[in-house]
Structure formats: structure tokens, C-alpha cells
Specification:
By secondary structure, this protein is mainly alpha-helical. Helix content is about 65%, strand content about 5%. Strand 1 and strand 2 form a beta hairpin.
């Protein structure tokens, strides 16, 4: 049965084959075209259509040994104008910047993961929390006295407040690490975490009398 002619004179098979060749702008054999069009045309139909298009000088045909290769005529391939090319170049640049940003975010997340996986042991965390809690409490008392009216130099006040802020930041960081570990343990622990802390001798903010609300100040 001859190929059905579509409106405009070309058969649906001819339209499909020609459009595909012009779209991909690559050389194909008849079998390749049949395969790429997913059986829309059989290998025999593809060969007939390709030869017909080549005879009409609408595509190019080249003999490659026993096989024939067909490809679109280059002069009728749509070539982007300068504006389109610039838009494509800008889009490529934008995608590249987005990829670089994602790489940076990935590296940052990997660094955070490494920090968590290489965190202190339980004993080290307990010791560090106790030490920091004591230092913070001492600094708070000292800062309260200083702010109450005792005369100190601006340099001394700035040094003390800077040290206090650094201690708060370190407290907050260790508190977050300990919370991550505590949350992970609590998922599989059947009892109360408060009881576990007491059993292990873990000194929490509450048990040590530290005021965690100052972290938000």
C-alpha cells in the first residue's frame, strides 16, 4: 500500500522522516530512521521515503559501501540568529552559575556532615558542657557587676563583652551538637532522656542552673 498523502502533498511518512532529519541534523540509514521513529515507518518504507526525498533533492544521499546514508541539506537547517545565540549563551552562563552555586552548597553540607560525624565523644561533650556552663555563669556574674556601675575602661568593657559573646556562640554550637546526638539516641531509647542523663551524669542547662534564654539575646 503506497504511503498516505497528507495535506500539502507529502505523505505522513515523508513529513515524519524529513522533519526528523532536519531536527536532529545527523546522518542516518533507513534502518536507523525506522528505529528512531519507533516503528512509525518500517525499514522498507523508510528506505523508499528516503530515496524519494533524495531524488527530489530535498535531502542528501551518500553511499557508504553497501549501505546508504541520508542527511538533511545544511542550507535549509535553521541557524540561530545573533540575538538567539546570545540568549542561548546567557542561558548557558546562568545554568553554569546555578551549577556552581549548587556545588558550593553541596560542599557546605558535606562540611557540616563531616563536623557532625567527627563530633566529640559523650564524655568529652559532658566535660565541655560543664566547663562552658561554669565559664558562662562566671562571666555573666562578672558582666552583671560591671554593668551595675563599676567603672572600667571602654577597652576592658569591649574585651569582656567580646569574650562573653564568643562563649555564648560556643555554648550554642555545642548545645546544637549535643541536641543532634540526644535526638538520635532518643529515637531508639525506651525510657525518658532525663533519666538517662541522670544515669550518665550528664549536666544539662537546667540541672546546672544555666539560663539558655540568653542565647537568643
Amino acid at each position: 500500500m503506497p504511503p498516505k498523502k497528507a495535506k500539502g502533498g507529502d505523505s505522513s511518512e515523508e513529513q515524519a522522516v524529513l522533519a526528523y532529519l532536519q531536527k536532529t541534523n545527523r546522518p542516518y540509514s533507513a534502518n536507523d530512521i525506522s528505529s528512531q521513529l519507533h516503528g512509525q515507518v518500517s525499514p522498507a518504507q523508510a528506505k523508499k521515503v528516503l530515496n524519494s526525498l533524495a531524488d527530489e533533492d530535498r535531502i542528501r544521499r551518500k553511499d557508504n559501501g553497501k549501505q546508504q546514508i541520508f542527511f538533511a541539506i545544511q542550507t535549509i537547517i535553521d541557524v540561530p540568529n545573533v540575538e538567539e545565540a546570545e540568549e542561548e549563551e546567557d542561558l548557558i552562563k546562568e545554568r553554569g552559575e546555578q551549577a556552581d552555586k549548587l556545588k558550593e552548597e553541596t560542599r557546605a553540607l558535606a562540611s557540616q556532615l563531616q563536623e557532625l560525624t567527627s563530633a566529640l565523644t559523650d564524655d568529652q561533650i559532658r566535660e565541655r558542657i560543664a566547663k562552658l556552663s561554669h565559664e558562662i555563669k562566671t562571666n555573666e556574674e562578672r558582666l552583671t557587676q560591671l554593668r551595675s556601675g563599676e567603672v572600667i575602661s571602654p577597652e576592658e568593657r569591649k574585651e569582656i563583652e567580646t569574650e562573653h559573646a564568643a562563649m555564648l556562640k560556643l555554648w550554642s554550637s555545642r548545645k546544637r551538637i549535643f541536641k543532634n546526638i540526644s535526638d538520635a539516641v532518643s529515637e531508639g531509647y525506651p525510657g525518658k532522656m532525663k533519666d538517662l542523663f541522670e544515669e550518665l551524669g550528664v549536666e544539662t542547662d537546667e540541672s546546672s542552673g544555666a539560663d539558655p534564654t540568653i542565647l537568643g539575646k
